[in-house]
Each structure stands twice: as structure tokens, then as C-alpha cells.
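Regression check, cobalamin case 475:
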Amino acid sequence: MNISLIKVREPSVSIPEVTPPLGIMYLAGYLRKYRPGKDNIKIFDLSVQEKDYVIENIRDADIVGLSSTNRDGLYLITIIEDIRKANKDCKLVLGGPIVSSLINELFDRFDIDCAVAHEGERTFLELVEKFDGGSASFEDIKGAVYRDDSGKSKFSGRRETIEDLDDEVPFPAWDLIINTPIAKEYSKRKSFAFFRIENNYMGLFTSRGCPYKCIYCHDIFAKRFRAHSAERVVAELEYLNKNFGIKDFEFYDDTFNFDKDRTRKICDLIVGKGLKINLYFPNGLRADRLEKDIVEKMAKAGTKVMCFAIETVSERLQKLLQRNLKFENINNMIDVAVKNGIHAEGFFMIGHPTETRKEMLNTIHFAANSHLHSAAFSIAIPQKGTELYSKYIGENSPQSLGQGYYEYDSSISEVPPDEVRKLLAYTFRKFYLRPGRIFRIIKTFPLSFIFSRRFLVQILKWLDVTFHNKSLAKQ
Ligand code: B12
Ligand code: SF4
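Current build output:
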């Protein structure tokens, strides 16, 4: 069958980061393994390709698979309309995180034939087999969302997860990206990691699912840690390095370091094989699953950036958010990373439910007093599909797609929204304008940091606060 897989991304999106479309690359790899020679698969990515080009090239597709997050949901509607106009006979299948979040309202919002919730490989394979056999009934496919007789979304039920990832899931179809002109588009844009990676790089997803239950987080791969073995992870790195000359790797796992021994072993194998590569962990590590020797091994294996997902230093809120991060070790681990030449970044959020101004300031001051090189602060905005949303906004309350995704006009904390926004901007000054930090940053990361887009954006935010709210200067 002619299968076109498209990663949807709204062009005007305010977030500059772009990453290779791993979800659809995994699907393509899986179809090739289990339907060898049967399909002609193409991959498109609207983060780096023009919409007109993509639409022109899917006219012959029997199946078009779309991958989207909630954030790109509004744009998804436009894309679906354009695909329907260009190719009225194709079957349109939706997948990606948006499906699991909006499971009961998909067919009210999108003109699709079917959707796949959660982990996609097995369900998509069965769907393709169905379409290939000329059938359009989906009730018996676990993990599928389809239109019932009344036109509403019906979910056939959550599918069991893939347990033996090494055995069942082949390498993603890297060649469909790396051997094509779009490969270099990724290195022209900002990747997920703090610094822009100038070379061709690749993203890896070495484990699926997360055992923690933070109420603001979406559950895509189930609340359990399943992982590729250390040998498989290093085989992926080696393959990409030897065959495509790739030296830079970003890891997008939810909790890469959950299994401490796996982390140690991956590092030992990289060093043992003499791989000269750079590793970036932009998606946040759990500091309470790190130990001194693990950070040292990660540094030796080539780690350049390590993000510590801390979010709040209030124990009360850690409990309320069901995050339960243990604090004892955090500053130690940051210091070990910094000592070993790793760029250490902290992730923080303010505006949590019931959070007081004092709790917000405690988090800001913790960040400022730490040895982190950089810090990203965001506001906690409940998103549909999370427990935070159903608890504090209401399970059945609709949420606008797309542009409305970042609107912050009502606070779930004890602090009014405009003050939370100002506090967020105030963090920049508090965090960066410290002689010790500036000195360390310039010493370790001369120009790449100072001229990074993120840094400039933060300066603008800071200027905005300084001119519009002088009272914060007294904090
Ligand atoms: C890399 C990443 C980013 C990158 C790129 C995002 C992008 N849109 O491309 C950056 C840094 C830019 C980013 C930003 C944001 N992100 Co982000 N990000 C991730 C991360 C860490 C990894 C994504 C990945 O590669 N996964 C690995 C692949 C294999 O998984 P997958 O894509 O989900 O694919 C599987 C299934 O979904 C399914 N599938 C996927 N596509 C398709 C298509 C078809 C046809 C089918 C059948 C199946 C299918 O099958 C695949 C294999 O099983 C995920 C966390 C996670 N666990 O995935 C969060 C995640 C995707 N991000 C999330 C969020 C909330 C955001 C932000 C809103 C954060 C913020 N506040 O700014 C922004 C939104 C940006 C945007 N426009 O989408 C949420 C999305 C929730 C949702 N329902 O939309 C996630 C799931 C994190 C979480 N657990 O909460 N993010
Ligand atoms: S925020 Fe991170 S630790 Fe918490 S549930 Fe999500 S992936 Fe797991």
C-alpha cells in the first residue's frame, strides 16, 4: 500500500525547538518488519517542510497517517481539509499524543477515518492489514478510536503494551529521514537541547513509559518503565555513528535514568567501544535516580547537557502533584555534573494548584542559589487529558486547540495570573544576574550560550518586567 506519514506542526508555533519525527519513524520501521515488501512508505514533517509540498506529494497515498500533539490540534484541522481536497479516497488515520488526550471528542473535532491511542505500532499494523484487505470495521482492533453509529468517538479499549521492546520493535526507519534532503533541515533549526546542534544529529527514545504519576503529565506509554537493553541502545548509537557519521544524540525518554544499572551499563559500553559521541538529555532526568558514579560515567560517555526536572522545591506540592521528588541529592548531583563539564539546566514550574507566593519564591531562590548553568521556568497550565485538568478545570470542560494552548488568564494557584507571569519573568534576573553564574557560564560556554536564542528571549522578558513592574525589583 502507499502509506504517507506526516508529523503535524503549526508553522507559527512560538516554540523554536524541532525534533526528528520519531513516532512515525518507529511506525515505518515496524511496518517494514511485519509487512516486508508490501508497502511504499513516505515520511513528511511539517516542522521542516512546506505544507504545499507535502500535500502535493500525498496525492497517491492509500493511507495517510497524521501524528500530532494537542498544541498542533488547530492546524491539524486545516491539514485534514487540505488532504481531503487533494486525495479524497485515502484513509486518514490520526495518531500521537493528541489522541490519548482528546479520546472522547476526536470525531467531533476531526474529519478522520480512525485514530490510534497510546503506543501505536501494533494497532497501526492491524489497521493497515484491515485497509489492505478492503475492510473498514475497527471494533475488534484494540487501541483504535472510531466513529460509532451516532457519529461519536468510540474507543475499543487500551491495548496491552509491548513488553519485549528489543525483540519486537526494530530500529526506527532512520533512512527515511537521514538519506533525504530534510535531514539537514533539523540541524539548521534549534533542537531540544539548550545549544543548537550544528551537525546532523538524531533523537533516541530508549525507554517507554514512566512509573511516576505527576498529575500535570500525559500518559502515552503507560505508567510503567519499559526499556531497551543497554546493548540495544548502544547498537543504535553505533549503527547511526558508523553508517551515517552521526556524533550527536538527543535522548527524549521520559525517565532515561530510572534503571540505574542500565544507565551505568550504557555508559560503560559507549566507553568500552571507543565511541566518540556527544549525548544530550534535554527532556529532564530524575535527580533522585542519579548517583555520583552515574553522573561521572555519563560525563565520560560524552554527555554535554543534562536537564534536571525539579519543578518545585515545596515538599507539600511535590506530594500534591504526585511527583514525590526527593531533594537530598539534587544539589550534589548538579555539582557533580558541573564539575564534570556538563551543562546543567534545571526545569521549574510555578503556578501549581494552591501554590502560595512564598512557595514560588522558594523555588526561584533555590534555582538562583544552585550551581545550574541555565534554568527554564514555566507556568503550570492544566492541559486536557491530565489529572490536573480533570481535577482543577473539570473532566468534561472543553479546551481550545492551538493558539489557546498557552493562554493563562485564570490561576489555579493562590497568586493572581498577572502576578504569576511577572514572577516568571523576574526569575531571569534573579537567576542569571549573578557574577558567579555569569563568570562560570562565560568560562565554560563562551559564545554559544550568550548568543543562544533562549538567552536573548529571556533578556527581552527581563527588560519587560524591569520597565513594567519596578516593584518586583524589591524582591
Ligand atoms: C520531543 C518532545 C518535544 C519536542 C518536539 C515536539 C513535537 N511536536 O514534535 C519539543 C521540545 C518541541 C516539545 C514541545 C512541547 N511538548 Co513535547 N515532548 C517531546 C517528547 C519528550 C518526546 C516525543 C517523542 O519523540 N516520543 C517518542 C515517540 C516514539 O513517541 P510518539 O511520538 O508519541 O509516537 C508513538 C505514539 O504516539 C504513536 N503515534 C505517533 N504518531 C502517530 C501517527 C499515527 C498515524 C499512528 C497510527 C500512531 C502514532 O505511535 C508511536 C509509537 O508508539 C514527548 C514525551 C513522550 N513520552 O513522548 C513530549 C510530549 C509529546 N510533549 C508534550 C507537551 C505538552 C509539549 C509542549 C506543550 C510543552 C510546552 N508546555 O511547551 C510543547 C508543544 C510543542 C508542539 N508544537 O507540539 C506532551 C504532549 C501531550 C499532548 N497530548 O499533546 C508530551 C507527550 C509529554 C507529556 N508526557 O506530557 N516536545
Ligand atoms: S513528568 Fe516526568 S516523572 Fe512525572 S510522570 Fe511525566 S514523565 Fe514521569
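Comparison notes: The longest strand covers residues 303-311. The chain has a mean pLDDT of 91. No diff flagged against the previous build.
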